[in-house]
Amino acid sequence: MILVYILNSIAFVFGSWTIGLIINIAIKDLPFYSKLSHFNCIKNESTYQAMGMNAFKWALKNSFFKYFNQKLKFDNKPSIAQLQEVRKEMTYSEIGHFIAFFLIVVVVIIKLLDQQLIYAIILFIVNVIFNLYPSLLQQQNKKRIDRILKR
């Protein structure tokens, strides 16, 4: 049964990406969207380190996920315009993952109310790995880009 919960959780998360993408497209031109682009959940770098963000980043770079969003990659030293464009793409990806994360949190709450504790825990863990951590990684990378752009 645990394997079924894990596979269903992964399917839920992948589906949430599609819904997050659709909602993101619908809201990207609204006034509050630019405020979201400067929002940071984590203020200091040591928190990222404590959460294991370096290990997560390594896992992304060394798995099939590295092929997912090629727009967020540089072959050479980027220009200011390229950095600004990548930052925009990162924001788009970050917000899409946050939307997906919160959608799955709703499903987790429903599973808890339905007294499916094990399923809810597995779904939450998978959601953190596939939605929350990617959003936080985008925020961390945006901070780096912002430091470069301020020079």
Please give a quick description of this structure.
By secondary structure, the protein is mainly α. It has six helices and no strands.
Note down, in words, how this protein is organized:
This protein has 151 residues and is an all-alpha fold. The chain has one domain. It is built from six helices and no strands. It has helices at 2-27, 32-36, 45-50, 53-61, 80-113, 117-150. It is globular and about 55 Å long. The N and C termini lie far apart (54 Å). The mean pLDDT is 91.
Topology at a glance:
Layout: H1 2-27, H2 32-36, H3 45-50, H4 53-61, H5 80-113, H6 117-150
Helix pairs in contact: 1-5, 1-6, 5-6
Shape call? globular
Spatial gap, N to C terminus:
54 Å
Low-confidence stretches: none
Number of DSSP-assigned strands: 0
Helix content percent band: over 70%
Mean pLDDT: 91
Strand % is under 5%
- Tally of contiguous helical segments: 6
Number of domains: 1
C-alpha Rg, in Å? 16 Å
Main attributes of the structure:
151 residues, 0% strand, mainly alpha
